[in-house]
TrEMBL record:
Known EC number: 2.1.1.217
Signal sequence, start to end: none
Species this chain originates from: Fervidicola ferrireducens
Molecular function (Gene Ontology), one example: tRNA (adenine(22)-N1)-methyltransferase activity
Protein name (Swiss-Prot/TrEMBL): tRNA (Adenine(22)-N(1))-methyltransferase
Gene field: trmK
Record GO biological process: methylation
Catalytic EC class: transferase
Coiled-coil portions: 183-210
InterPro entries: SAM-dependent_MTases_sf, TrmK
């Protein structure tokens, strides 16, 4: 099975030789790729739903990797004990769900060397929660796949809880990067915000006013980053 560009970019951030947990594994494609390519020594794949859990187990068995990939049924980090893995991946879930998974298991989360996160939406809410709880974002990537942009971040528990508005809106590492992908991503976000603002024209409800204010602020911050 071929890995999507999004999952390939995530795989590229996993330190070689690590023991990894893939939370919300679904089909277990990522764990299979990580072990087959000698990136992870061992993976504990976690899945909350019975159907995908069974399918993940089948896929691992078919790949002949049952000795290296343990597929556990459960919620978030609950099926794990501290020290079993050094890296965790939570990808393909909403930013708020990702944070709620992390928040429920401080013992596991604080024991990890790195956590790779890829929110499908609300990346800014996830970043805010991370900063407020003194997590440090050490690397960020943006990948465009089939016309959609995905943000990927590597985080670890830090000591400083300091952050700026740009850090929340775009990310502390992305805002410094001047790669064509990041610049295109910022342009694409500005275009989308512009279209959304046009759609709000003529609407005067409190909700519309708040949404307009927040979008204008986001545009101002993104333009500021582009102009730096
Ligand atoms: C959209 S899939 C993403 C699959 C894969 N991680 C990826 O990025 O392609 C999300 C999976 O996470 C599982 N999931 C959702 N909440 C979960 C939780 N709290 N613990 C474990 N798995 C969860 C869902 O059942 C689903 O199979």
């Amino acid at each position: 099975m071929k890995l999507s560009e999004r999952l390939l970019e995530i795989a590229g951030l996993v330190p070689r030789g690590s023991c990894v947990s893939d939370v919300g594994t679904d089909h277990a494609l990522l764990p299979i790729y990580l072990v087959k390519n000698g990136i992870a020594q061992r993976v504990i794949a976690v899945e909350a739903r019975y159907g995908p859990w069974m399918r993940a187990r089948e896929n691992v068995k078919k790949a002949g990797l049952s000795d290296f990939i343990d597929v556990r049924l459960g919620d978030g980090f609950e099926p794990l004990k501290p020290g079993e893995v050094d890296v965790a991946i939570i990808a393909g879930l909403g930013g708020e769900t990702i944070w709620s998974i992390m928040e429920k298991s401080p013992d596991i989360v604080n024991s990890l060397y790195a956590i790779i996160l890829q929110p499908m939406k609300n990346a800014h809410r996830l970043r805010k929660a991370l900063f407020e709880n003194c997590f440090e974002i050490t690397e960020e990537r943006v990948v465009c796949s089939k016309g959609r942009y995905f943000e990927i971040m590597v985080v670890k528990k830090g000591t400083s809880c300091f952050f700026s508005e740009e850090d929340v809106i775009l990310g502390p590492v992305l805002k410094q990067k001047r790669t064509p992908e990041v610049l295109e991503y910022i342009e694409a976000r500005l275009n989308r915000l512009f279209i959304k603002l046009r759609e709000l024209e003529g609407q005067n409800s409190e909700h519309a006013k708040k949404a307009r204010e927040s979008m204008l602020r986001e545009m101002e911050l993104l333009k500021g980053v582009l102009e730096e």
